[in-house]
Amino acid sequence: MAVLEMRKINICALKKDRKKILEFLQRKGCLEIHETENKDSVFQKVNTATQISIFQRNAALAENALNILEKFYPEKTSMFSSLEGKKEIEISEFKKSTENQQEIMSVAKDIIQLNKAVDEKIAEKARRYDEIEALKPWAELDVPMNYKGTKKTGFLLGTILGTYTENQLINRLESLEELPKSTYAQILSSDKFQTYIAVVFLKQDEEKTEKALRGVGFNRPPIMTSHLPKESVKKREKVITILDNEIQEIKNKIKEYSERRIELKEISDYYTIRAEKYRALGEILQTKHTFFVTGFIPKKEIESLRMNLENDYTVAIDVEAPKDNEDVPVLLSNSKTAGAVEGVVTSFGYPTKTEIDPTLITAFFYYFFFGIMLSDAAYGLLMFLGCLWALKKFPNMEESMAKTLRMFKNCGISTLIWGILFGGYFGDAITVIGSTFFGVKITIPALWFTPIEQPMRMLIYCMIFGIIHLFVGLGIKGYMMLKQKDVMSFVCDVVLWYVFLIGLILLLVPTSIFASLAGTTIVFPAWANMLAKVMAIGGMVGILLMAGRRAKNPIKRLLLGAYSLYDTTSWLSDLLSYSRLLALGLATGVIAQVINTMAAMGGKSVVGVIMFIVIFIIGHTFNMAINLLGAYVHTNRLQYVEFFGKFFEGGGKEFHPFQSNTKYVEVKEETRI
Fold it and tell me: What is the DSSP string of 258-301?
């Protein structure tokens, strides 16, 4: 449980070594470089925006080419590929693989151009299909669509709004007073929106005819051809076939480049690394012959960094403690067991300079509560074995994923322990299997007690666990106050609350309300009852008088104290939140028992065995998944709202070291002899 101590480091070196030193710092990944203001004319900054833009563009081109290859010819991966992590390579191998960067970028550009050609062909196909759809309604036409008519008659194609029969069309056209009587219209086809017609008229009446037809929503076709519509459709279908062949040929060319996928991945990472390096280069100060790097580094990394730099380069290194007003980045350091829960803590926030790293304490309660909520030994064992297998099988997985799996592995151990204490093994599966298929009653008794049979007892324990959790949070708050030598706040804001709350609890225990919940009556001796009253009243009066101690006005001080006492309701609501431990624990067990009962309904027969196996596997898979999710969500909530709310604010700045943020490969520093 620690926030690594940081030091401010200043490195001054010769400019001729700038490239090698920056690359070493990037591979080492232990220094967060801070941009330094240019205060004089000696030190200057280099504008690296153009180079960064070029590197980012090249990385994007390579990434685009990889996406195209994945679109047409997906890389064959296993269902656990997301756990495999990055491929580890030595730096010498990485440099060698990126020597032909111009050729690889040429490959990327070729792939992009080929994809563009495919897109153009596909767009052309879509256009042809649209034209075919537009021509189909005119399929019965036995003259070209652009036919103008004879010497004395005109010919016109178009659509009118609505669906008409021949008689309806005749009646509709006859109702148009402006339409010449010599006009003849024939229906070629129709759909639910419009009717497709061919109109014959005297050429001298062309203008009058078209104007009159517009009164019924007449529009000319969007496409006109010089062939019969049927022939035009066939020609377009032939064009589509040709386009399909051309598209396939282009795809085959793209497939030939799939062998260069590894090179494209490495070059994408290469340019990403270079962009990061030049971004750092633009933040440091330089002279004609030297350059200056400043930033923060964990104290434990200083000697290793100093030794490597001083052995290989001419450098001057100055290390100093950060000033009180400096915004120092935060880097957490915990054991693997506790560190697995770092993601839970950092999702809420990083501790500030005045706070402690709560990861270790959070981890203990996290595993403790998660196990109670899931509380089935079989589920816990499956979680543990599954996560352990993944961690052993894929040692190079991303650290964030590894932490998540370690967290669930530890939660599996806790669930296994609580399942044994509560007697849950796939619910009551052992008893159901024994009585249904073997005619014997087999039970594994709970090592402690069975919550389903004694829910009120379980509720009491949940409340006790909640009180401990909340009191630990309040205690951490007190520890931080003492660490800052604020004894007055410790007494007024922590000790008085302990006295008040413990007094209230001692007053509640002998009451009938507690007796009805616990199923037993506890009687305190007279001195204990008096002590409880004194603690409750004394704590309440102390909070009333001292919570608003910073206010000069005595009335305002009392009002602030009264408002602070109102937090008692918050403590009560927080305590009641721990009843979710009971609710989720019971839900897991009850649903498991229902699944077992349903599975055994087929009885002792071949069909019954098959039915049992199917329902058992599907049901318990669902039950484990849904309750695992519930336990995860509600355990987080107990940490974020109830626990952290007592002492932890967060707001610290995460440590972002200058390092190689690659996507596909992990470049290792070669072992130095």
Answer: GGGHHHHHHHHHHHHHHHHHHHHHTTSEE-SSEEEEEEEEEGGG
